[in-house]
Specification:
Rossmann fold; Helicase, Ruva Protein, domain 3; 16 strands; globular
């Protein structure tokens, strides 16, 4: 995963520095390290550092005014250290745009927190002119869709975000359940605290309890130190329990207790810990059928589904396919430094007709594959894998209704105007062979204005 700015690590423990640096570099981040002296601030300024991962104890002893000084450069802070309950930490950790991760470090949790910090940073970089209010097809810069099912989903997410009720998100694999959960978190009053995802199906059953609730030293073989669990990590924030339908019966009982009493016991401990966590669960399974078959607790199901949300499958929102393709194409062109101009209309018709069993994830993977293999030019049907071509019935890419075809129920004027503007821009680019200067002249715009519109709209040139 790439970033537009660097991550800086500062810790007087060289092993920790090297471990974190190597891990994040392997994950694709641009990482720099800094000495813990006065030159540190020059480093984070010169290297365009956006996120600082720093040992809290070091900052308290060497840089007591670190937070104040760092604010002049404005990086996000990820503080690591022992003793979350220490009262001295609370004024620092509770500040907006400062995140905390307890030691000993769990690298998966670290990456999750870095991603969380980058999402927060990305949101802060958008000014009011680029807000979702001006782009009704975008929710919280992550979810995209102009179709009626997606607009209804956006409305639901915005309504429930500020509540503290438990939410159950259901939908097929690849529809974007975690994106929906992250959007709910970002729009809630908990957005300055951690969003902690847990894939219940990806963690072995004998380890999931420890992952969720933590453990104390000596509680089992290999438990060499106390370890915080995901519930503690998500305190005052949001815990996302993905694939909840795969959770075993013994853990369902313990999860039910947390939902009822807002407390849990780490593995091997006899002391309960209070926790303030908003839980969002997700599954691609039919929980009602699992309840009927006695494979999922009925009382837990009703606790989880206080507010049920269903993510539509991609075949139920075909109008969004061109919009998603434009977005993915712009992103992968930028990431790969390629110059794929777009998709021919025939290719778009084929893709709009396909049923997409893998949903948005499958579409995203396909666009990435095509960008890597094509490198430049226009994607044609010849570039598509055979499975997208066999037995397809081409559909037309949706056109704007004319004034005479105005639906009885009316239309969303802003969305229609935005779509009409998109079509004019793409037609101008098609007529000029992608030449932005000539296209701007046709549209009576400045070239810089056209380029800015292309960026904001995530538009890529489509060959007519």
């Amino acid at each position: 995963m790439s970033s537009s700015s660097s991550i800086c690590i500062i810790d007087n423990d060289r092993k920790t520095c090297d471990l974190v640096s190597a891990f994040l570099t392997y994950q694709g981040y641009d990482v720099v390290t800094a000495e813990h002296n006065v030159s540190f601030f020059d480093t984070i300024r010169d290297k365009r550092v956006g996120i600082v991962i720093a040992d809290l104890h070091l900052l308290q002893t060497v840089f007591p005014d670190f937070v104040v000084n760092a604010r002049t450069i404005n990086p996000l802070l990820v503080l690591i250290g022992y003793g979350r309950q220490n009262d001295k930490l609370l004024p620092i950790v509770s500040e907006e745009s400062i995140f905390f991760l307890p030691k000993p470090l769990n690298l998966d949790e670290l990456e999750s927190l870095v991603m969380r910090a980058m999402e927060y940073q990305s949101l802060k970089m958008h000014d009011s002119d680029d807000s979702a209010a001006h782009h009704p097809h975008v929710l919280n810069s992550t979810m995209i869709g102009k179709s009626r099912p997606m607009q209804a989903l956006f409305d639901m997410i915005e309504k429930v975000a500020e509540s503290t009720a438990t939410i159950l998100i259901q939908g097929e694999s690849g529809t974007g359940k975690e994106l929906a959960a992250r959007a709910i978190h970002q729009l809630s009053g908990r957005n300055s605290r951690n969003f902690v995802p847990v894939n219940c199906a990806a963690i072995p059953d004998d380890l999931l309890e420890s992952e969720l609730f933590g453990h104390v030293k000596g509680s089992f073989t290999g438990a060499y130190a106390n370890r915080a669990g995901r519930f503690e990590m998500a305190d005052k924030g949001t815990l996302f329990l993905d694939e909840i339908g795969d959770m075993k019966a013994n853990l369902q009982v313990k999860l039910l207790r947390v939902l009822q009493n807002r407390e849990f016991e780490p593995v091997g401990s006899t002391r309960s810990q209070k926790v303030d966590v908003r839980i969002i669960a997700a599954t691609n399974k039919n929980l009602e059928e699992l309840v009927a078959n006695k494979d999922f607790r009925e009382d837990l199901y009703y606790r989880l589904s206080v507010i049920p949300i269903t993510i539509p499958a991609l075949r139920e929102r075909r109008d969004d396919i061109p919009l998603l393709i434009h977005n993915f194409l712009a992103r992968f062109n930028s990431d790969r430094r390629h110059a794929v101009k777009g998709f021919s209309r025939e290719t778009l018709g084929i893709l709009c007709a396909y049923d997409w069993p893998g949903n948005v994830r499958e579409l995203e993977n396909l666009v990435e594959r095509l960008v890597i293999l094509k490198d430049s030019g226009v994607i044609t049907p010849d570039d598509l894998p055979d499975k997208y071509l066999s037995g397809h019935t081409q559909v037309q890419v949706p056109e704007l209704p004319t004034a005479e075809a105005l639906p009885e129920g009316g239309v969303c004027l802003n969305s229609m105007v935005d779509e009409f503007e998109n079509r004019l821009i793409l037609q101008a680019l098609a007529r000029t062979g992608g030449n932005k200067k000539e296209a701007a002249t046709l549209l009576n715009l400045k070239r810089t204005t056209l380029i800015e519109k292309l960026k904001k709209k995530n538009l890529a040139y489509i060959e007519e």
